[in-house]
Amino acid sequence: MKNIIFCIFISLCTAVPGFAWSNSGESITVERIYLNTDKECYVAGESVWISLFCFDTGSENTKLSTISSIAYIELQSSTGLVAKTKVAIISGRGSGRVELPASTPTGNYRLIAYTANMRNESDLHYFDKVLTVYNTLTNERDKSCITDENDTSSVSAPVFVTSDTRPVLMEVPKTVLLDMPGNQFRQNNDVTFKLSNKYDTPMSLSVSIVNEDDLSTYKNLPMYNYMESGFSKNDANFGVKVIPEYEGEIVKGRVVTVSGGNRIDNIAGKNIFLSVVGGDSEIYTSVIDSAGRFAFYTTNIYGNADLIAEIPQLDTNSTFNIELDDNFLYPSVKNIPKLVLRRSYEKDLLKRSLAMQLNKRYGVDTIFAKSDPMHNPLLSGRCKTYMLDNYTRFPVMEEVMIEFIPELRFKKIDKKSYLQVRWENNFRDLTFSTDNTLTVIDGVPVFDHNVVLRYDPLKVKSINIYEGVYYMGNAEFTGIVVFKTYKEDFPNFVLPKNAKMLAFNGVGQPCRLTGNTAGDMLPDYRTTIFWDPDVRITSKGDAQLKFHTPDYPGRFVMTIEGIDASGKPIYLQTKFTVF
Questions:
Q1: pTM of the model as a whole
Q2: What is the sign, positive or negative, of the torsion defined by CA atoms of 355, 357, 359, 362?
Q3: How far apart are CA 500 and CA 261, in angstroms?
Q4: Cα atoms found within 13 Å of the Cα of residue 282, Cβ hemisphere only
Q5: What is the tens place of the pLDDT at every residue in 143-192?
């Protein structure tokens, strides 16, 4: 499977224009990332909401990249990593969030992002932007902080000590038409606004609305400036040393034999399966090489999940462990600008601290809508579904098959039971599969069908039957049977000795922060009152959006940033007040 995907990638590189050539003659896409965040100043304990743009800069006109399907994002201080996450990319766009630990010291930080494909350049040109974090619960400070002891003013302009060069470009980007019912709104009220695309190309935008205060914040380059200054760093020295994650994250690792167990050369060449507990057909396969290593080409695993890694052909008396690789790079970041602390920030910090604590207490910061991600297409075909509550419940699984599921049967061969699926062969004859049916309970493949035979059917909610022949890597199955329990956590299921359970941090699920708390009677002191990371507007089309004003007065800033299908950046910023 690994060789097939690699060959496909090389073929695409040579066939598609807009690729840069490596020293060895191959061609790869030059990718650059831009991250738009809901704001640039945070309080420890808040979430950094992210909208991601992944660009293909190798062509004459910059466009969204279709190569990478995952980005790695790190928040780093002058002393090391603070937080990290993974963001799924679909056709060059993605969204997610980074949770700031409540223990994050006050200071400036760099938010960096990169893809696996970017590692093929001689120098990693990762994206980075500076974020300011204030910790209102402790006095801890990062070494990027300095204090203005002579500050006696009520309000002071932000001061930054930095050696960064910040080019100012004269080119004015495209914009979008904004239709709002005024610029003053009452507290705790719904406001509907409309965005209109006056151009002949569709747009993909991010929209944020945040409270404006006087806290010191580093002003990062907007997208239209960054595209000119950041994209010009294309390195001409490439080498295809890392396979781009085209379909999703490549989960790599190795099998480690325990002292006294099987030697690694007895494990080499065997199939290893990876599945997501409670997942929907998220099953992957790989072959263990002579060094005990494997690689699963996933279609992205979402959220923090429990994985099951199993070597079905391995003797159950063998003892081994599974170690997964860490795909994050943790590169050294540039010098971080200094943050000047002033006494005049006390009032704004008190308001920010109250908002953060109320949001955590009442869960206001979790009011967001999730998007449905793409899943493994293994079981995307037609199936026969049996909802067991619609039938007489039997206490024995074999009776369930005999009484009302004619497509399934158990057959005993050499004192072992096999679940077989009825299917139509190439001669259009109805027949039953032999001993290679894939059975799945709550996302976990079960290769010992005796376990299925003994499983309590009263715990099973539904049975889905897929007929036909299926291929997973070099494994072949005739028919797939999927059992779903009521809680989808495979109750009373004991893992075999040749399987290991692994904790895994997958990509964040795409989501947008609507913050609509109307009717909830919850205190609403959010500083980010609206965040939509991916607003799509067709050519000459409109998008109607709605936000809810909080329970306090103040100035608010709406920022709209994005790109159109021709690669032109779009930017608009406006302000309004809440009274």
A1: 0.87
A2: negative
A3: 15
A4: 23
A5: 889 887 665 443 333 333 333 444 444 466 788 999 999 999 999 899 99
